[in-house]
Structures are given as C-alpha cells and as structure tokens.
Write a structure and sequence with these properties.
- By secondary structure, this protein is mostly beta strands.
- The protein is built from no helices and 12 strands.
- The strands form 3 sheets. Strands 1, 2, 4, 7, 9 and 12 form a 6-stranded antiparallel β-sheet that branches.
Amino acid sequence: MNGTAMQRSLPAGNVPVTTSTVAPIVNATMPAGYRNLAVIADVEYHRGPEPTPDSKIHYSTARFTLTVTTSGGPNCASAPVAQTEETVVRGVNHAAIPLYTKVPVNPGCTQLSAKVTTTHLGGNPGTVGGAAPGLTDQTGVNGSTPNHTSAMTHLFVVPS
C-alpha cells in the first residue's frame, strides 16, 4: 500500500435518506508500519422533491456522521467522531459535505472500519449522491461518445 489511500466512491445512482443510511463504507486490513490514519469523507447531499405541488416545505435537513474504528489487537483506537448538520433549500438543491478525523494505529491493530451515516432530520427526505454517468466531456471517451462518469461521494483513508 506504501501510503496510498484506501478509498470508496459510491456507484451510479443516489441512496435515499428517508430515515438513516450508511454509505460509503471502508472495511480494510491495514498495512503494517503505519502510526496514524487520516479519514476524509466528501458527501454529496441532494434535497428531495416536494411531496405535492402545493407543498410549503422547500428544504431538507440532515446530520452527517463519520465514525472510524480500528480492531484486531489490544487497545485499538477509535477516532473522534466528525459530525455536522446541513440544510439544503430549494434553489440550491445539493451541497458538498466535508468530514475529517484522524485515528492512531496502535501496535497489533490490523483492521479498519470507516463509515458515514446520514440521518434525515427535517423537511423533505434527501439522497446521498452516487456517480453521475455520461457527463459531457470533450477530452475523455467512455464508449463511442466523449463523456465520463463523475463520482460524487467519496471516503478516503490515508495512512501515515
């Protein structure tokens, strides 16, 4: 692994957030020799549509929680929880939610679990944005037409 990030991006499509959802998730075996892990999440949150045309609810509020634990040995550490709340209103429709935490890797701890939990708090339900396929692109070709797929939600674990 040589200091290369472990990562997960959501595939195409959106993950509904009507109550609570957990995505993305990284479960991995850590390489030996590292003392710390920086964990970075970049979540794309979309406000859901109004339930009826005459609805007066034009927002979505959600809580985003990044949790990281290590295991597999004695005295394995958990990272401080990174958490924020965001309200997305009509006209904005989506927001990028950054989360960051850091965890020490104690001797003998070999496993990592990192995840983002998104919880609907109010307004219209929303979605966590997965990859958007087939975006116009003059420089790249996916198939026979110039386009690309853009991953919108990511979770990175960077060892040091």
